[in-house]
Amino acid sequence: MEELKELKLRMETQRPASWDGLPDLSLYMDQVIGYMPRQLIQYGEEERLTSAMVNNYIKDGLLPRAEGKRYGKTHLAYLTAICALKQVLPVKEAGMLAGEHAGEGADQLYGRFCAQLDRALKTTAQRLDGDLEREDLPQLALELALRSYAEKLACQRVMDLLRQDRAETAVKKSKKERKEGK
Fold first, then answer.
1. What does the pLDDT read at residue 66?
2. Contact 81, 98 (CB under 8 A)
């Protein structure tokens, strides 16, 4: 199956640019929109990033504001993560994951994201072996869908725990501020 061989090859080799490989120069919005399709494996136009999406991510606090209409490495790193994660999580939850590591630099967070994406793509690519026939596709699709289901259940529970931790931290902070008279 040539189509699956092509997907397997892309999953084994195509990766987002490393932190050092991201453009050093700040980009304008139209350049960001043009750059982002290179970052992730995509099929179809419905996955394309738009300037309205970027502006909404900024308004929602998922992405830092532009620096004088220009976007740098940090913006590209966060956009890459958001664009990948929003395929399986609500956008706000995708952004919440970045917020859980607020003490880290964007380069460290992006490096961890890229390493985990690399592992996930390699694992799935291994399942797309070259001996698949058309009659194997329904079984493969079922297997992949059920694996996605199981991992989504686990992810949802972990996200619930993260939200609970955030709420508890906010309550503690509020109590401490009241106690200190702020």
1. 94
2. yes
Domain count within the chain: 2
Question: Got the DSSP string for 7-51?
Answer: HHHHHHH--PPPGGGS-SS-B-HHHHHHHGGGTS---SGGG---H
Nearest to 93 by CA among 81, 76, 103: 81
Q: Could you tell me which of 162, 22, 30, 152 has the C-alpha nearest to residue 87?
A: 152
How many Å apart are CA 45 and CA 40, to the nearest integer? 13
69 and 105 belong to one structural domain: yes
Containing domain of residue 159, as a range? 134-182
pLDDT, residue 98, reads: 59
Q: What is the pLDDT of residues 36-51, one digit of tens each?
A: 999 999 876 667 899 9
CA 157 to chain centroid, in Å, comes to: 18
Q: Compute the distance between CA of residue 94 and CA of residue 89 in angstroms, rounded to an integer.
A: 6
Together in a domain, 140 and 114 = no
